[in-house]
Amino acid sequence: MFRNTMPRYEVLSQDAMAKLDVAWRRLMTEVGVEFMSDRALDLFRAAGQRVEENTVFLDPEFVLEQVAKAPREFDVAARNADNSVHIGGDAMAFGAVYGPPFVRQGDVRRDATMEDFRSFTKLAQSFPVLDSAGGVICEPNDTPLDSRHLDMTFALQTLTDKIYMGNVVSGVNARDTIEMGAIMFGGRDVIEQTPVSISLINCNSPLRWDDRMLDAQFEYSAANQPVVLTPFILMGAMSPVTIPAALVQQIVEALSGITLSQLIRPGCPVIFGSFLSNIDMQSGSPTFGTPESATGLLCTGQIARHFGLPFRSGGALTSSQVADAQAGYEALMTMLPTFLAGTNWVMHSAGWLEGGLVAGYEKFIVDIELVRMMREQFRPLEIDDDSLAFGAHVEVGHGGHFLGASHTMERFRTCFYRPLLSSSENYERWMRNGGVDANGRAERIYRKTLEEYVQPPLDDAIREELAEYVTRRRRELGD
Fold it and tell me: Residue 472: pLDDT above 90?
């Protein structure tokens, strides 16, 4: 887990924040938010909020009272305690790509399989800059739809010893994730004391929470497992085209979802989620790594801090179909503001391609390099007598060079960032070594990483109990 102690980059003035405050209150009270769940509507009615059919018109002061119940910071336990994470404050935790139905290996784009899911899980375990493999790293299309969540959760729990994300397709899937977490960590009471999973609850923007997501939210919040309440906004399609309007809608959607979690279980952990980009107004296609999404991300960080909430945003997003130059610069356009904003929970940190439709093996390695570099760039600069190196000047004198100086020789192994992927060879040496470009080097790295992967140890009794649970539930689900 990375601690980002750099100053936050804030772009909204006090006047701008005040205008957003007026606007979200108006949207929440005059237009309201749809909740496609009778349980949710009953909770809002019981709390004195106005409900008309499926639309809830929320009192902003009531919402702020509920939001204030959520913890500003909290811990999530991994089965290897060294990999447990802190969410909130200056802590940044990173997870891999989430959700793609396809994968790309080199020039081949194909349906994702369960073997791909396991391979990406192993890669996530192998790189320390990732705190989590995530959840649906890719959608294993060769396994039954009703029970694949069991296989995915089992893989996350056994192939990694890091934190993992829960399945949110239904309340049933959420209950299975919770039960498997209880088996892994020693009981429901244990995981309610310290959460063991994070789950993504997406809003069906604009201004609607659907029944399947809400069913999962009820299960996770009742079990005290953190949920990321995330508006899914592509400006021009799911919100108005202007950034301020999208920010207002995002506030209303996120805070309304957070309010529901606090009604389900006061004090349960939540994360203010943001997935904010725009569409191409010529084609209607989603676009990522855009200037608008970067600005929205920076604003979101400031807004979440205003409400005293940890937040999720950013990642290494791109619209590119392959791991090319476009994929690199668009990923940086999103990852740099991710760090500048001090994002607490970063999804899609490695592997995202083609607007999230594809999990790319080579792109996974490119993104690992990017996260490693950003972490190095955002380390505070230490200035002391040792780093000022006055003695090196005395030793070298005028017109000399520092390559063989004592100060250099003592530090040359660690003084500069050592890249995982990048090449700095001269042309002749590069050609002698095959003239391999970044994609070719990334392929070598991921294949070598998978060959050298070592499964983290797990108590045999726990593994057996998890496997028995998966087998029993698969049978009960008809698969």
Answer: yes
